[in-house]
Amino acid sequence: MNDCIFCKIVDKEIPAEIVYENEEVVAFNDINPQAPVHVLIIPKKHIPTLNNIVGEQKKLIGEILLVAQKIAREKGIAERGYRTVFNCNADAGQDVFHIHLHLLGGRKMTWPPG
Amino acid sequence: MNDCIFCKIVDKEIPAEIVYENEEVVAFNDINPQAPVHVLIIPKKHIPTLNNIVGEQKKLIGEILLVAQKIAREKGIAERGYRTVFNCNADAGQDVFHIHLHLLGGRKMTWPPG
Prior knowledge:
The structure is a homodimer. The first copy, chain A, is of the alpha+beta class. Chain A has one domain: HIT-like (HIT family, subunit A, 2-Layer Sandwich). Chain A is 20% helix and 25% strand. Chain A is built from two helices and five strands, in the order αβββαββ. Chain A has helices spanning 5-10, 58-74, and strands at residues 18-21, 25-29, 37-43, 82-88, 101-105. A five-stranded antiparallel β-sheet of chain A has the order 1-2-3-5-4, with helices on one face. At the A-B interface, helix 2, strand 4 and strand 5 of A face helix 2, strand 4 and strand 5 of B. Strand 4 (82-88) of chain A pairs antiparallel with strand 4 of chain B, so a sheet runs across the interface.
C-alpha cells in the first residue's frame, strides 16, 4: 500500500487535479485524458482489482458510480452521455492496482470499447 | 416499461442466453459480441440510465459489479483480465434504455475504450 500512487493521491502526498472528494472516494482528472472529460474515481480504501471486491463493499462500488453520475452532471455531459469503465488486470490494461473508475465524455464514444 | 426489451428478457417473454440469474439481476450473452466473453448484466428493476440511479440503489449497482466478477471467474478470465462498461445516453452509444453492464474479456482490450 505504501507504494500505491493512488493511495498517495488520497493522502495528498502527491498532487492531482481533484474534482470531487467525500469520506469514501476521491475523483481527479486522468493525466493522460482520452476524452474532453476523463476523470478517475477511486475509493480511499486500497482495493487492488475488481477481483478483490467483497459483498460488504457493494455500497462503496455503488457510491463510486453515483459520484460518476454527479460529476457528469456538474461537467454538463449527463444528458449527451458518458461512458464508465473499470479495467481489471492485464488483458484490460489495468496499470495502477488500486481500483479506479474511468468516466469519459464530452465526445462521441465508439464501439467496441477498446 | 412494457416495451423494454430487457424487461422482457427478465420476464422470459423473449429468449436470451442467460448465464446467471439471482433475485436482483440477470446476465446474458450480448447478441453482438465484441470479445470472446461479452456478457450483459442487468438489474431486474427497470432503470433507464445511470442518470436515474439514486442513493438507495448503491447496493444494487455493487451487486451488478460483483456478478461481473463472479462470471469472469466462471469463464476463466478473472486473472487475465476483463473490462466492464456502462454506457449512458447517446454520446456513449447506449442503445437499450435499461441499464446494462458490459463485461468483456478473453482478448487483449485496447485503449482508449472507444
